[in-house]
Design brief:
about 325 residues, four-stranded antiparallel sheet, eight-stranded mixed sheet, 2 domains
């Protein structure tokens, strides 16, 4: 039986004001996150992943960004919330781990002060109780000598330690949802593996639902149960991990998977998708991936495909899939 949906986006769009114009960055996306699930959001830089996460956290400034559609948390539409309402939710029920811990932690305050403040903002506990909780959480995320760490400043910690502190801060109030935006990007391979293991442990032991944003499909394979592929502000494919990795349907997903280095087969040159992610608002009609797609035909350049169910646990946004044609090596190209 499917677990209950805890977070759902319905026709979520984000645009930024540029003079008198509004530039669309995220275009009417729909997805859901279930209780205790790890959902991976993948795509190249500029695909709208981080903007989506900031919208889900209510962190986009209203003076420069416009958010439309619905963000339903346990059935309540967060887009209607005031800033004071958001403060009660943010950190308490929905938390976020940002990409670069050095810019997320305040360099002027000790680690202990920042953790204790996070606790006391949302719960009526004494400073002593908050300190005890902080020590316990630092220990939970695998940091040695937690009491001593409370007295240290962010610059005194290594990158991996700072990231663990950020995870501790995000999880200290046992939120229902954790949004992790590229949490392992700046870390070396060994520390990255430790952080990924920690995230899975948090998911299993605390039953936290995790929205895991990354450009690294290798990380997704190790961590997630379901995958959502974004391109140019749209969802082009989504489905269970096994379905996406074993039988991807969208040409963009196929390209991303072909880009993963294969340790068993040495190649002179790694595969890469030709071209670049289009600038937001630059493509006015048709499939946004068409300029980079080797299988694009006339319809792709004129009409915009919609996300269509292709299998029980898999959907894709591609006319070739809709028309029942193969997408892959040897597929016919129409002009």
């Amino acid at each position: 039986m499917d677990r209950p949906i805890i977070l759902e986006a319905k026709d979520l769009s984000v645009s930024f004001k540029e003079g008198k114009q509004e530039i669309p960055v995220v275009n009417s996306i729909r997805f859901s996150l279930r209780e205790g699930e790890i959902l991976g959001v993948v795509g190249e830089s500029g695909c709208g992943k981080s903007v989506t996460s900031l919208a889900l956290m209510g962190l986009l400034a209203k003076r420069s960004a416009s958010v439309t559609g619905e963000i339903l948390f346990r059935g309540q539409d967060l887009t209607a919330y005031s800033e004071s309402d958001w403060r009660k939710i943010r950190g308490n029920e929905i938390s976020m781990i940002f990409q670069e811990p050095m810019t997320s932690l305040n360099p002027l305050f000790k680690i202990g002060d920042q953790l204790i403040e996070a606790i006391r903002v949302h719960s009526k506990v004494s400073k002593k109780e908050a300190k005890e909780q902080a020590v316990k959480m630092l220990s939970v995320v695998g940091l040695a000598r937690p009491e001593e760490l409370l007295k240290e400043f962010p610059h005194q910690l290594s990158g991996g330690m700072r990231q663990r502190v950020m995870i501790a801060m995000a999880m200290i109030l046992s939120p229902d949802i954790l949004i992790a935006d590229e949490p392992t990007t700046a870390l070396d391979v060994t520390i990255q593996a430790q952080i990924l293991s920690l995230m899975k442990e948090i998911n299993e032991k605390m039953n936290a639902s995790i929205l895991f944003i990354t450009h690294d499909l290798g990380v997704v394979a190790q961590t997630c149960q379901r995958v959502m592929v974004m391109y140019a502000g749209e969802i082009v494919e989504e489905g269970d991990l096994e379905a996406i990795f074993q039988s991807p349907e969208h040409p963009y997903t196929k390209g991303l998977l072909k880009s993963i280095p294969d340790l068993h087969h040495k190649k002179e040159k790694l595969y890469s998708i030709t071209g670049q992610v289009p600038k937001p608002g630059s493509i006015q009609g048709g499939c946004k991936f068409a300029p980079r797609c080797e299988f694009a035909h006339d319809r792709c350049r004129k009409e915009s495909p919609v996300l269509t169910k292709v299998k029980k646990h898999q959907s894709a946004s591609c006319f070739l899939v809709e028309e029942g044609e193969p997408v892959g090596e040897g597929a016919a190209i129409k002009n």
